[in-house]
Amino acid sequence: MSVTVEDKVTPADAARPGPVRSDLAASGRRVLIALAGLVLAIGGTFLLDPYRNYQLAVVAAYLCATAGLTVLIGRGGQLSLGHAALIAAGAYSFGLTSNAMDEQGITGVALVVVPMLVGVVAASVLGVLLGLAAARLHGPYLAGLTLAVVVAIPAVTSTFSSVLGGDAGLYISVQRRPEALDRIIAVEQWQAWVAITAAAAVLFVLSNLVRSSYGQRMVAVRDDEAAARLVGIDTTRVKVAGFTISAGCAGLGGGVLAYVTQNASPGAFSLVFSLFLVVAVVIGGLGSLRGALWGALLIVLLPDVIGTVLDSLDLPPELAQRLDGNVAVLVFGLLLVTIMIVAPHGIQGWLSSLRRPRRRAPRTAPALSTE
């Protein structure tokens, strides 16, 4: 895992109380930038057809998860291969809550907001449990634990098939759109609005978190856990909080995904999908929220492009069935290898390097520091 120079934090600096960037003007600018971005993204939905708006909504749902995952791995140094399980927790919790509220005749905004909040809470609770284990496990042991949670999803849905729908999944009743907007926008456009708003909220929270004193403590624990303990940082609390926040973001993404697709099934949260999430944040750029956006776009658009290309080749049905899905895995793997060779810091790191002015090498070697 590569770490940029600006991510380096000494444990002593991280242990100091108070946020590092507490300037109210800077916070105000971030709020204005977030609102401007939200308005532009919502305005952009008027330029897209219903299918592209649907894809945009799915990208925003995945962005919630990839943003939380890239902070967890890139900033916190905790490898999670089981984020699909956290997304599933949010999706199923959203579905069960939405169906229960619909049976009670509840309509309106509450039928969207309340199930979303329940999905975030459910995923966060699971994140706390994983975080407690993460505080004691490292490297492959932690990855193996999170991987086991994903593998257990089909067994859980089959055991509680009367509630969760088994392999067929859970059909979800949702508030399609406000009646006042029936003649103005399509259902897919409204869904894109909801998804974009959720993704904007996640990005705003995480961007402020990585700039806070807690964000510096995360980096300090990642860089040198023993040194962080020596200066008084509660490493267990930092790790558990990191997993919980990331899980809450994934749960919100699962709720948005369930709202858009109106379904939650174990096949949508498979092991392959969980690995795709990790590969996507690595390709996009670990620790970068902009990189998380590149990763979410890849997860949605790359399989669509591959499917379009395969359909244009007019292949035999048997061969097309074998290639369906497997080609996407192969392309993701090749893309990961290529990006790691050409741009070790991911797509966003490569784009950032293009904007930086190249510095000339010093004519004389700098003196070595004695500190």
* Helix/strand order, N-terminal first: HHHHHHHHEHHHHEHHHHH
Low-confidence stretches: 1-6, 18-22, 363-371
Radius of gyration: 22 Å
Global morphology: globular
Number of helices: 17
Percent strand equals under 5%
Largest sheet: 2 strands, antiparallel
Distance between the termini: 25 Å
Instruction: Say how many strands there are.
Output: 2
Average pLDDT reading: 84
Helix content: over 70%
Strand order of the largest sheet: 1-2
Structural class: mainly alpha
Structure characterization notes:
With 371 residues, the chain is mainly α. Helix content is 71%, strand content 1%. The protein is built from 17 helices and two strands. It has helices spanning 11-15, 24-44, 50-75, 83-103, 110-134, 139-151, 153-159, 161-164, 187-211, 213-223, 225-230, 235-261, 271-284, 289-312, 317-323, 326-342, 346-355, and strands at residues 170-171, 263-264. Strands 1-2 form a two-stranded antiparallel sheet. Mean pLDDT is 84; it is low at 1-6, 18-22 and 363-371.
Summary?
The protein has 371 residues and is mainly alpha-helical.
